[in-house]
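Task 17 of the worksheet. Students: predict the tertiary structure of the chain below and write it out as structure tokens. Keep your answer in the requested format; marks are given for formatting as well as content.
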Amino acid sequence: MSIIARVKSLNLPLDQTVVIGGGILDALGLRSAGDVDLVMTPALLDELSRNAEWQLSTKHNEPIITKGDVEAFLSWGSEGVPNFRQLYDGGVTVDGVRFANPRFTIEWKRKRSSDKDRLDIALLEEYLSRG
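Model answer:
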């Protein structure tokens, strides 16, 4: 199932979520995403943290909720400062689902620089160069 179908199947308000990480590569047809990583509004994360289907814990010293292979955070690439609005406003929409901007994703992956991240960077840069 595509990342877009997976996100839509969660039945979350799409105006309160942004797909982060490798999800944009799946949405653009560059490679499949193994999981779903989201940043969401504090209100939505709070609401879901009280839902028995979602598990609340801490990762990287910040709250995270999980459900199966879905992880949802309040921030990404901002040293733990909630940044949903920045990611949403600067993001891109593919088939109704909002994704972090590919350029932001490239910058975040450059900081990590694993083999997988370098491959993702190359795929995204090639995609962006096609205009």
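Marker's comment: The beta strands are 17-19, 36-40, 55-59, 62-67, 70-73, 92-94, 97-99. The chain has a mean pLDDT of 95.
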